[in-house]
Amino acid sequence: MFRHRGKSRTLKHNLKLASLLSGVAGIVNVSGVFALHQLTTNVTGHFAFFADEVGRRNFASAGGYLLFILAFLFGAMVSAGMLELMLRRDKQLVYLPPIGLELLVLVGVALLHPELILQYPITIACCLLFAMGLQNALVTRISNSVVRTTHLTGLFTDLGIEIAQLYFYRRQEQWQKLTASIKLRLTIISFFFMGCIVGGFAFSVYAMKALLLAAALLIAGLVYDSVKYKVVRLKRKYRG
C-alpha cells in the first residue's frame, strides 16, 4: 500500500491507500468545520474567502486565509522534501517521515485543551491544513499522481468525464481502464464521506479528540503495511 511505487503499484494498492487516507481526511475535515468553522483539508474555498476579504479591505481576516493557504503549501513542500531525502537513504521506508509528522500534528491538536483551541482557531486550522498538505503530497507522489485524498472537486469532475466516456469507448482495454479509474474515484469519495460521518459522531462525543481516530487509522495502516510486507517476504523466502 505505502511501499509500492512506480510500475509495481497496482489498482489494489491504490484502492487500499485511497480508502485509508480518504477516511482520515474526512475525519479531519469535519472536525475542523465543527470546532473551527474552517475547511481544513483543502484550500480552494480559502482562495475565494481571501479575495473577498481583500475586496472588503478586511486585511486582518484576509491574512488568516492566506495563512491557511500557505500552511497547506508548506505541508506539501515538507512532505516532498522528506520523500526526496528518504529516497536517497531507505526507499522501503520512504513514507514514514511524512506519516509520522502527520501523526504528531493530529495527536498534538487532539490533546490540546479546548480553551486553547477556542483561543487560537487560526493556528489550529493551520496545523490541520499543514497535516493535510503532508498527506496529499505523500499520496500523490507514491501513487504516481493517481490518488488524491483531501478534496473532491477534481474527483467529481474526472468521475463525470469517465462515466460519459463509458458510452463512447467500448474496446475491452479502454473499458477496463475506465472502470478501474471510476472504481478508484468512487472509493475515495465514499471513504471521505464515511470519514465525515464517523468523524461527526465522534466529534459530538469527544470534541477535538475525534482526531485520535484519524491517528489510529494511520497507525493501523502502517501496522498492516509492515505485517503484509513481512508476510510476503517470508512467502518468497519459503518458496525460494
Could you characterize what this model shows?
The chain has 240 residues and is mostly helical. It has one domain: Growth Hormone, Chain: A. The protein is 79% helix and 0% strand. The chain has nine helices and no strands. The radius of gyration is 19 Å and the shape is globular. The two termini are 24 Å apart. This is DUF1275 domain-containing protein. Keywords: Membrane, Transmembrane, Transmembrane helix. InterPro entries: DUF1275. Pfam families: DUF1275 (PF06912).
CATH domain topology: Growth Hormone, Chain: A
CATH top level is Mainly Alpha
CATH architecture: Up-down Bundle
Using the CA coordinates, give the radius of gyration: 19 Å
Pfam family, one: DUF1275
InterPro entries: DUF1275
Protein name: DUF1275 domain-containing protein
Keywords: Membrane, Transmembrane, Transmembrane helix
